[in-house]
Task: structure prediction
Amino acid sequence: NAGVTQTPKFQVLKTGQSMTLQCAQDMNHNSMYWYRQDPGMGLRLIYYSASEGTTDKGEVPNGYNVSRLNKREFSLRLESAAPSQTSVYFCASRPGVNTEAFFGQGTRLTVV
Amino acid sequence: GENVEQHPSTLSVQEGDSAVIKCTYSDSASNYFPWYKQELGKRPQLIIDIRSNVGEKKDQRIAVTLNKTAKHFSLHITETQPEDSAVYFCAQRPHNQFYFGTGTSLTVIP
Result:
């Protein structure tokens, strides 16, 4: 039981490049989330998926897209990376509405 | 995060003293109130949570209190130790979303 697994752990992109951050959970959780963490800003919600087949915008969705590929996987795509997207990205999952969220180990992304 | 205000942003205490962090929320329908701890370079992890049918919950040196009338909940850490130094986040769950406060950096001075 690995929990929530994110890949890659580190990535450096040039401005304008695209990439997909992968997230998978093996806990049969319904809800999955993507956050970015910047100094002094806490964890800000980018997109979430309440259940398989649904996705919705969070606080800061501009510049990102997501795919809930199946119940296990929820990917985050940057189509044209910008320096403002330099951040640590966390994926999380929860089994239900009033339950604990489990986090992946994070992806440190630098856009130069 | 949206609709969640957390204070203070930084807190320094002497080892053995108590620390209190407070969060204020706006959605009166909220009924689940967790607190997460994030050590440097690591992922956030749940340390305690409370549901709206109780006013207080304790787990050893950690407690959470909830005031639904005033729409705020607080984390209390007693007898602080150096290993309590970390960033602490509250969270709120409006509908299917899950928003976090901006965090409190706690430093426990030996």
